Amino acid sequence: MTILKKQNKHTHTDAGLPRDGALSRDSVKMAAGQQWVLVEMVQAFYEAPAYHLILEVFGDSTVLFFYRPPSHRIIVNGKECINFASFNFLGLLDSERVKLKALSSLKKYGVGTCGPRGFYGTFDVHLELEERLAKFMRTEEAIIYSYGFATIASAIPAYSKRGDIVFVDEAACFSIQKGLQASRSFVKYFKHNDMEDLERLLKEQEIEDQKNPRKAKVIRRFIVVEGLYINTADLCPLPELVKLKYKYKVRIFLEESMSFGVLGEHGRGVTEHFGVNIDDIDLISANMENALASIGGFCCGRSFVIDHQRLSGQGYCFSASLPPMLASAAIEALNIMEEDPGVFRVLRDKCKHVHKALQGTPGLKVAGEPLAPALHLQLENSTGSRTNDLKLLRAIVDYSLERRIALTLARYLDKEERFLPPPSIRVVVTVEQTQEEIEKAAQCIREAAVKILK
């Protein structure tokens, strides 16, 4: 696969983009007289073996190769399958507008930035993307990171330090756990989505503070939750959390990677879904790798909160900045989201459809909120062995793959997870999946369950 080739100085090239939007070889050539020519860079990037998807989706023992971008149909080992595995919620990976915008940016800026944001790594498209995200979320300011996982993992230790206290839902994702670990703060876990248990911990801390008011004045207190939990597909009770915030004087950090671009009339997440004033949330973070079909993540909130990360967010200060072409792609994805807010309702309707279609599958139970775009199928009755449970679920995934339905096992770092979720098959919903494809997948899973779990 050719990515770069030598350009003959006397060869005439057409530097313009094709009118029909096709990403042809000619469409990515540089102007005549330049020494090097980029050839199908975007396609080459997408056609590279998706090792991360191999590891997460199908485990360590099976090697699969992908020959097409992870759109709603994907070619796995030469076989075209309906994709229920990739987090391409709004189908924007398939958007010609997004591809052409990324291609145009690639020709203008090159592949990377070769520096962190504070060291010659800030491009105009970074500033534009931050401005657009802040405007979209209706906050004062936004900051972008070059890697989605590093976003909340950098934001937490930027504010919470040794001696501070963080109240965290026990189902919090791994990136939150790493952020807590880096903060060296005192962490108190409450039962998943249990507001009574959270208030119990807050009351205990209030009593402890009364014993030493002087010390209490310098201790910062945070609540860290997810909007839609990736490990459970449950929706956080945000209105109740806001009440506890003001009652016990704590700050709320909200991780919205699974709810941004999904919930709310305009896709702004759980604050819009519940009608909560976004100013009641101290920090919102999300990655751009699900709804926006790009790479990286962002935080948004009040200016003084966001500005602090520009000198204290480790992933911002010490990592090369987001490649400009990916920033441009995210901007174009935002344009599409703003132009067609009806797409969020379509996605939520399909989430409900998938959730309903999978109900009653023999031997399996559907875990998660019906509005979640990535739900979990768990064994109704565990074998008592995690290894054996995983083997049964993997057999269902393999059975489905043979019948051209691509599913994924939820994968975890078993020895490092604070609270290890039960084994499950993760079923991902996108706007591109048709009713017929959803019914076909549900029927295939039912057949597999009857055959394997009998």
UniProtKB/TrEMBL annotation:
Pathway: Lipid metabolism; sphingolipid metabolism; Sphingolipid metabolism. Residues 1-10 have a biased composition (Basic residues). It catalyses: dodecanoyl-CoA + L-serine + H(+) = 3-oxotetradecasphinganine + CO2 + CoA; tetradecanoyl-CoA + L-serine + H(+) = 3-oxohexadecasphinganine + CO2 + CoA; octadecanoyl-CoA + L-serine + H(+) = 3-oxoeicosasphinganine + CO2 + CoA; L-serine + hexadecanoyl-CoA + H(+) = 3-oxosphinganine + CO2 + CoA. It holds the Pfam family Aminotran_1_2. Its EC number is 2.3.1.50. It comes from the Eukaryota. SUPFAM superfamilies: PLP-dependent transferases (SSF53383). Its cofactor is pyridoxal 5'-phosphate. InterPro entries: Aminotransferase_I/II_large, AON_synthase_class-II, PyrdxlP-dep_Trfase, PyrdxlP-dep_Trfase_major, PyrdxlP-dep_Trfase_small. Residues 80-443 form the Aminotransferase class I/classII large domain. Keywords: Acyltransferase, Lipid metabolism, Pyridoxal phosphate, Sphingolipid metabolism, Transferase. One of its GO terms (molecular function) is serine C-palmitoyltransferase activity. It is an enzyme of class 2 (transferase). GO terms for cellular component: endoplasmic reticulum; membrane. The keyword Acyltransferase applies. Residues 1-20 are annotated as: Disordered. One of its GO terms (biological process) is sphingosine biosynthetic process. Component of the serine palmitoyltransferase multisubunit enzyme (SPT) that catalyzes the initial and rate-limiting step in sphingolipid biosynthesis by condensing L-serine and activated acyl-CoA (most commonly palmitoyl-CoA) to form long-chain bases. The SPT complex is also composed of SPTLC2 or SPTLC3 and SPTSSA or SPTSSB. Within this complex, the heterodimer with SPTLC2 or SPTLC3 forms the catalytic core. The composition of the serine palmitoyltransferase (SPT) complex determines the substrate preference. Belongs to the class-II pyridoxal-phosphate-dependent aminotransferase family. PANTHER family: CLASS II AMINOTRANSFERASE/8-AMINO-7-OXONONANOATE SYNTHASE, SERINE PALMITOYLTRANSFERASE 1. This is Serine palmitoyltransferase 1. It comes from Sinocyclocheilus rhinocerous.
